[in-house]
Amino acid sequence: MSDSPRPSSRPDFWDVRYEQDRHLFGAGPNAFVKAAAHRLPPESAVVELGAGEGRTAAWLAREHGHRVTAVDFSEAALKTAQERAEAEHLRLDTVRADVRTGRPDRQWDAAVVTFLQLLPDERLHLCRLLKTSVRSGGWLLAEWLRPAHLTGPYHRIPYHRIPYHRMGPSRADRMVPVREVRRAFAGERLASVEAVDVHLQAGPHRTGDAAVVRGVVQAGGG
Ligand SMILES: C[S@@+](CC[C@H](N)C(=O)[O-])C[C@H]1O[C@@H](n2cnc3c(N)ncnc32)[C@H](O)[C@@H]1O
Q1: What is the DSSP code string of 9-33?
Q2: Which residues touch 77 (CB under 8 Å, ≥6 apart)?
Q3: Taking the model in full, what pTM does it have?
Q4: In a domain? residue 2
C-alpha cells in the first residue's frame, strides 16, 4: 500500500506539511477526546494512532497521567511530539509505523484516533488494528470527518445556507460514514456512535464548521 498514487497516503507528504507548519492542527488536545477522556481510569496505557505532533497524546499524559504511545508514519510529526514531551517533562513513547500494515505487539487500556482519514480498504485494517489493540473492557475514542462534510447538507438556518468549512480531504472516499463505524465495531459495546456537526478549532487548517462522526466504544462489551 505504500506505493499508493495519492500523495497524502505517503509519509513524505505529511513530513513536508509538518516541517512547514509546526502545530499544524493546533497545540491543544482534540476537543472530543478531551470531553470523553473521563471514561479512562487514571494512569491508563493509551495508544494514539495517527497521533501527528502529539497534541492529544501530550494532553492525556499531562492531565491524566496516562502512559501514552503515539503512533504515526511521519518522522517530522513524531520529532515535534517528542520535543514537546521532553520540554514538558512528560513521558511519551513514539512509534513510527504505518497503520495500514502490521499488528499490535501488545494491548492497551484505550486507543484514540482522530482525523486519520484513510481509504476504504485501509480503514478495514485500521478498525481491526484498533479492536486488537484494546483489551476487553478498554475504550476506543474515534473521530473522523464524514461524507456530509463534502456533500452537505448545509446548516439549516433560514436564508443562510452556510456550507461546512473547507478542511480535510477533498475526495469522498476518505470520509468515514457513520454506518461504517457502527458496522466495524458491531461486536463491541457502542456507548455512542453519532454524526455531529461541530465547530472545530484545531489550528490553521482545521478551524471551522465540520461534519464529523464520533465513536465511543468499549471493547468486548457487545
Ligand atoms: C490529519 S492528521 C491528524 C493528526 C492528529 N490525529 C490530530 O488530530 O492532530 C493525520 C495524521 O495521520 C498520519 N497518517 C496518515 N496516514 C498514516 C498511516 N497510514 N500510518 C500512520 N500514520 C498515518 C499523518 O502523518 C498525520 O499525522
Answers
A1: GSHHHHHHHHHHSTTTT-SSPPHHH
A2: 14, 15, 18, 51, 52, 53, 54
A3: 0.94
A4: no
The boundaries of the domain holding residue 126 are 7-218
Closest CA relative to residue 71, chosen from 56, 87, 88, 86: 56
- Residue 175 sits in a domain of what CATH number? 3.40.50.150
Residue 157 CA to ligand 1 center (angstroms) comes to 33
| 118 part of a folded domain | yes
Q: What is the pLDDT of residues 23-60, one digit of tens each?
A: 999 999 999 999 999 999 999 999 999 999 999 999 99
Ligand 1 site, CB within 6 A: 14, 25, 30, 50-52, 55, 72-74, 77, 98-100, 114-116
Judge residue 79's burial from the number of C-beta atoms within 10 Å of its C-beta, 0-12 exposed, 13-18 middle, 19 or more buried. Answer: middle
